Amino acid sequence: MKFDNVALLLPDRTVGFGTLETSGSRISKIELATPPSPSPSTSCSRLILPGLVNCHGHTAMTLLRGTGGGLPLQRWLEEAIFPIEARMTPDDIRAGVRWGALEMLAGGTTQVIDMYDFPDAGEAAFESVGLKASVSRVGLSFVPGRLADCIAFTRAHPKAHVCVHSEYLTDEPFCRALADANNRELKRPVHVHVSETEKEHRACLARHGQTPVAYLAATGLFDCGGFAAHGVWCTDDDFRILKEKGVVLVHNPSSNMKLGSGFARIPRALELGVTVALGTDGCASNDNLDLFEEMHLASLIHKGLAKDPTVLSPWDVIEMATFGNRLAVGAAADFCVVDLGRLHLRPALDLPNLVVHSMHASDVVQTVVDGRLLYDHGTFPTVDLEQTREAFDARVRHCHGI
According to the model, what pLDDT value does residue 33 have? Predict the structure, then answer.
């Protein structure tokens, strides 16, 4: 594929203008205009940016979109979410994941790190659509046989992360046994919720005399790095542990605000050297899978809290959202194309600022994953959208008993 006369967000935090070509699954050529025209952004009708990466999702929760709105986290889980999840089957997961994967592709997301039940069905659904995904068997101490299942699933699935849901849904023997298996054999990053609410954080201190981050680190679960979602109530010492262990803090601003959990101290985490990424969480606590919205909120929240407009530059936020993806020759051809002709995107004078503060998922017109055009101006070339919609609607009725 060849894209001419496009603006490009480049790895050195500059904007280039010219041509991008792909060959197979890789970017094969980037040719920049030299010298650029005096105001090239006004003559380009399209922007290419690296594919967005959703570093914490529960994609099948598209089936539960909006469920339990207005409840705090623990009541939301126990009263609204867990009863429906108890009825879910692999068929539900397949349909929910396919629908969510299409939503993400239509919004420029090319990869997701996902945590949910029936991960075999979820992985197959992601693969059927083409979205890159790492799925996990969720570690839960109260499910008989789950420890062995977690180890076996991770061993059999090379892209899987080791996963425990959280400190509060696992016990110490479970965490230590899983960490031991991981550190001896599996060598995978961990995926876990940490310090999402003040109640969770304080309860862990009461149980263990340690914060969730310190406790999980002590069990060995962070020894291979990984992704810690939320971290709203993390301390400076927690941030130092995350940095030391190479654990990415995944910021989920929409979910944290909707559930009233608070505001993660992202500027402080960055100051202490923690790598920060963005996630949507699930559609029941966020209601959409729009990483442009997460960029916008992350930027505004922390500027407002700090009373400082220089906090989190647009490039800082873009790098959180594109997590490792880059437009460079030889890199994976994972990127999205935005229509700069939209009313709210003119004039395109400062493209990084425009990405963070003006763009929406609906501005994406094409999404490419491993060199394959998977979303193209409202269509999905490799997917039967009507069939996918019918399957999704049927599984919504099943899950909700309607």
Answer: 87
pLDDT digits (tens, 9 = 90+) for 94-139: 999 999 999 999 999 999 999 999 999 999 999 999 999 999 999 9
Q: Which of 255, 334, 248, 316 is nearest to 290 (CA)?
A: 255
Alpha carbon 44 to its chain centroid, in Å, reads: 29
Around Cβ 79, how many Cβ atoms within 10 Å?
11
Cβ neighbours of residue 106 under 8 Å, at least 6 residues apart?
Answer: 361, 362, 364, 367, 375, 378, 380
Model pLDDT for residues 222-274, shown as the tens digit of each residue: 999 999 999 999 999 999 999 999 999 999 999 999 999 999 999 999 999 99
Neighbours of 184 (CB within 10 A): 8
CA distances from 130 to 66, 90, 101, 266, 368 (A): 26, 19, 8, 32, 10
- CA distance readout (Å), 181 to 27, 113, 155, 174, 219: 37, 21, 10, 11, 12
- End-to-end Cα, the chain, rounded Å: 45
What's the rounded Cα separation, in Å, for the pair 369 and 359? 21
Confidence (pTM):
0.96
Contact call for residues 281 and 294 (beta carbons, < 8 A) = no
- Domains identified in the chain and CATH numbers: 2-50+325-376 (2.30.40.10), 52-324 (3.20.20.140)
Instruction: Quick: pLDDT tens for 14-50.
Output: 999 999 999 999 999 999 987 555 455 566 899 999 9
Query: In Å, what is the CA distance from 79 to each residue of 63, 384, 402?
Result: 16, 35, 18
Label the pairing between strands 247-251 and 2-9.
Answer: unpaired
DSSP symbol at 324 = T
DSSP SS3 for 92: helix
Alpha carbon distance 288, 69 (integer Å):
13
Residue 296: CB partners within 8 Å, gap ≥ 6?
A: 356, 357
Measuring CA to CA, how many Å separate 346 from each of 40, 75, 352, 391?
13, 44, 13, 39
Q: What are phi and psi of 240, to 5 degrees?
A: -65, -35
Among 133, 115, 125, which Cα is nearest to 190's? 115
Phi, psi (degrees; rounded to nearest 5) at 392: -65, -50
